[in-house]
Request: fold
Amino acid sequence: MKIPFYYTFKEFEENYNNDLKKWFDSFPDAGESDYLNELRNEYQLFFYKNNSDFIINSNWIPDEYPEHYELSIIAYQEFMQEKLIQYLYNNGFSNFDGDYLDIPADTDVMDFWNDCNVRTRKNSAIIDDEKHKYLKEFFTFDNYTEKLNIDIKKFTNFKFATKKILDFVDEKINDKKPANIPHSTHEYIDEITQNKYSVPQKIKILDMLNIKGWLMDKHNFTTFQIEELLSDLFDRTDKTIRNSFSDSKHENTAQQYLEGLKKVKAKR
Reply:
């Protein structure tokens, strides 16, 4: 069963019990904690502390090595505008000479949202971010002006909704914790066991130590090379490493670790 994805907290909350029941019908041996973990994995992609932090990852392959760029939502809009226009020209939506677009009024250009996200000779960049499949909801395409428009109000509200949804999920997870495990916002059970840190938490610790800046300054590494290095060291994909750097949800854990480390004294 694919878990429904909601763009407002009201819809999420109203449908929670019914969606949970359907989950149990599909997976009778699963528990509510399993369902909550699935929800968390979906919505945590969008958890940022403020609006300016929101980024979408793109991947561009020039002559030799792939390069990665972080796009703001406006840059992402421009990126997808170009991709859609190029797709339309390449798929018969232009005049005979290919001088201008001729889009039928009944054509929903948004149907090509995923199809246009491919590498072409003119544009080798693609969006390789998991968030991409959810972002279509905030855009419309005007066939007359040939412009991709974004509903910023809806998008901004969604970011607030995401935080409320994660708070809802975390509260339920914390309610199910044993009494001797401390509660903390966005602190996840499977990442805190036996005083060990998950790979995303370790990456965030290194991020707060400015590992990227040090490697760039000391060894002239590029961002791509740093991600490849950490990918090899932690046995994770470069995409996982990149997302761990950009994700802010482990900042508190990393900060607490570093503050605690400063208080540790050498044993004689």
About this structure: Residues 152-175 form the longest helix (24 residues). Residues 53-151 form one domain.
